[in-house]
Amino acid sequence: SSRPFFWLGNDTLKVPVALFALNRRRLCERLRQNKDVQKNSIVLLQGGEETQRYCTDTGIVFRQESYFHWTFGVTEAGCFGAVDVDTGRSMLFVPQLPESYAVWMGKIHPPEFFKNKYAVDEAHYVTEISNVLALKKPAVLLTLRGVNTDSGNVSKEASFEGISQFNVNNKILHPEIAECRVIKTDMELEVLRYTNKISSEAHKEVMKAVKVGMKEYEMESLFQHYCYTRGGMRHTSYTCICGSGENSSVLHYGHAGAPNDRTIEDGDLCLFDMGGEYYCYGSDITCTFPANGKFTADQRAVYEAVLKASRAVMKAVKPGVAWPDMHRLADRVHLEELTRIGILKGNVDDMVKVHLGAIFMPHGLGHLLGIDVHDVGGYPE
Fold first, then answer.
1. What is the mean pLDDT of residues 23-48?
2. At the top level of CATH, which class does the domain 186-293 belong to?
3. Does pLDDT of 191 surpass 70?
């Protein structure tokens, strides 16, 4: 069909850019129901910008800002996007590149190219943003400003030369667009199924390859190689965690200070927490298994305690169930099992009262997943 899509060839997934048109439509419908949104409002978002390594000219591979990706699906840096809330009309603003770009970076495309590539209603240069928006005579520009409660960081609010001539509201948009991102469309779920399928296969390849004497980073490398060659995944959703032995109990092991560099030993458990990312949609999968292929009695007992908790949650979870209740259920099963195998002694109800489960599961039961691995909408309050 002539409908545009994102695709990296071979067996990778074709993602129709209609996915983002639907996201924009849902956002506009939601905003129109908000009594604080006046007629003739325009949503304005600023995309991510290319960065370099510190003071050098070494580029860091660009990955789009998540809210901008959700709304437009644009892979290029330095763009702005706008959506007319009343009509749903979409506008993309792309950078006007210097002639030298053609020599160093490749073909320079006109705005019309991006209009077709992303199936938006209008495309212009970023330099024209002030004039184009002024002609629309918007009552207000709705810009994105809000705190990500996982990181404490604030989203970058759109700004351009001449924005001061417009009425700007940066309070309304954030809670509404975040709420839209929480509920995935069927098209989004299709992409998430794909990223998790490829990542699952990659984990299985790693399991087959692990041998005592190997370095943890060899497994990280194999995972990334599979995700990229088979899945077209240039990025992972987060830094790969390849914990063997006691490293397996460090939640976010694998960072630069502890870079998956231990040698895997006989008798180790491996806890590998890794997920690939395709077209900015993530995955997050953790597997625990014995490096030599055989659990010790103690390893099996603890593994089966966690498995039992997982199964209990999967059985109980359904629409309408409260997330904290599921966390408490997992905690209780852990404590019951740890008592049964003799690691803990005492009354499980008393253990629950003093939150003893937090010693063994200091993180939450889970998190939402989407364009970010810790996706928006976790509601920590």
1. 98
2. alpha beta
3. yes
